[in-house]
């Protein structure tokens, strides 16, 4: 039997209705994620990381945002345009979600304990008492000191790190098979980030859960992921196992990104490598290679979309002749 | 009170404190204070970059604002180019403001969105009553070129630009009056890595060309290491360690410095982080612990010894200062 993919995204297209017309924020994205693995999505802000993730769990802001095309297969079931009941059962229960800013995801006027127990009661056939007991255990598992007391706190009474732990507790309360974490540590200090990443790895190992980790931080990618998807302007330019990506990046964008990071081993005050220019605005995206567009290259590559293909086992590339 | 600094330092900060009054109750009486900056001393020489790192809430921005006198310190001194500006009345301070400027994380948030980019860049010159309308216009063009922006940007508005371009505009504005010292408060923190490196290169070039001195505030230790000559590590209102950049990373002495450095996720998947992350968060500056604030956070073995001690920096190697804390420094 072939290894069954936990999540298989094919040709995902997501768009928004805006004043300036329809914009395609995610433009034909495909990737797979296996059980227990961590897949990272990295790329500059606005490249479509969050929209990709939100499309999977049907959380695009409606009615402006919607999935236009493609397939989202989770455990053999198609989630795209699935009936609301299927989505309802899946999201939260089988797929847990963590956002960057817990304050926007947590209800500010509701005590922490209630928010966790509500989630539990929604999906599980247990009593209120059992739910509360379970909530305390979860808070303890995510490293919140004196959880019996914290359970009656409101989110604003907690530090940023503690709020993110509560988010993780909620996301994990149903033992999901997949955790989607969108910039889970971006708003945190490095020390607290290290704690949260540690916690996520531990939870993942204990529960055999897969993680889709979205971040713009290549350090976090290197530390946490098995495989990486590099997005640029709504598309995947490269996908590879993490060690191969860092050792032998193939796409010019990936190379530029890796070269731009200031590293502790750099010689001080030397010129840093950069990627010239900036991402074009979404209304101006060309059909062809969008990194060529940034590089202000002229010619054919701007007109025809480069093929996205497997160039070596496990290595996928948008094969623009000018960029690879 | 205005003796010039014998070392020729551009900036000298001495035992600076900024305690914000905390008010409450029906009578709005002072009920306590937030000791955001609590006894900081540092100097910056001509053409030098001092990096300032520490977790959020430790007082970095407050320190920066006290230096440029957006805030009036509670105690201590700020001396810029030999002049004590700590208590100086605004009328006397205004001409001196030419010497020091502050750049914020996102200039769009700190600048008036209704003003054109040209007006924004010219504003510090207008305030200082420098030049005529014509000469200012010429200077705006020069400044835009200096930060690698087209001069056509002058007639546009900040919202028409990307984050990186807005930061270039913010830097151009801060340079309008030819300052010697820039306080850069998280100038690249909101930017993507490829654009961040463009801005860092620009700042390093400008420093070389114009002989600028920088206080470079950031929570990103790799960025700070790249641009700084010396680095100060701040924790809960105090500097706990200060050293030449290489020395600080090669030979950190304070437990907090070590914790910060080891927490940086390395962009290299073949390296596995070895140390356990430290626990807890930055404690509240309203009721700081009795002893060493970091020792308290990590329940250091010798924390009790630090209670009641006068914690201050001492020099352990040339230019390398570290707190005399008994629980954080071996
Ligand atoms: N609510 C929205 N309305 C209109 N466009 C949006 C909305 N959210 C996102 N977009 C568009 O989708 C693009 C991708 O956004 P996003 O996925 O959030 O980027 P990332 O997470 O990679 O920073 C953005 O550049 C923006 O143009
Ligand atoms: N105007 C103010 N009034 C009261 N407290 C303040 C004020 N500004 C800052 N603080 C407090 O001072 C401390 C230091 O803040 P800040 O200087 O912004 O830290 P950092 O820049 O290192 O993140 C924080 O606890 C913050 O809440
Ligand atoms: S809803 Fe669950 S039970 Fe339901 S999810 Fe959220 S976490 Fe759990
Ligand atoms: Mg995002
Ligand atoms: Mg700050």
What attributes characterize this protein structure?
heterodimer; A: 324 residues; alpha/beta; four-stranded antiparallel β-sheet; 12 helices; 12 strands; 33% helix; B: Rossmann fold; 32% helix; globular; binds adenosine-5'-diphosphate; binds iron/sulfur cluster; binds magnesium ion
Tell me what you see in this structure.
Chain A has 324 residues and is α/β, with parallel strands linked by helices. Chain A is 33% helix and 24% strand. Chain A contains twelve helices and twelve strands. Chain B has 330 residues and is α/β, with parallel strands linked by helices. Chain B has two domains: 9-92 and 180-275, P-loop containing nucleotide triphosphate hydrolases (Rossmann fold, 3-Layer(aba) Sandwich); 108-178, no CATH class. Chain B contains twelve helices and twelve strands. In chain B, a hairpin with a 2-residue loop joins β4 and β5. In chain B, α4 (117-127) packs across α5, α4 (117-127) runs parallel beside α6 and α5 (133-146) packs across α6. Chains A and B meet through α7, α8, α9, α10 and α11 of A and α7, α8, α9 and α10 of B. The complex binds adenosine-5'-diphosphate (2 copies), iron/sulfur cluster and magnesium ion (2 copies).
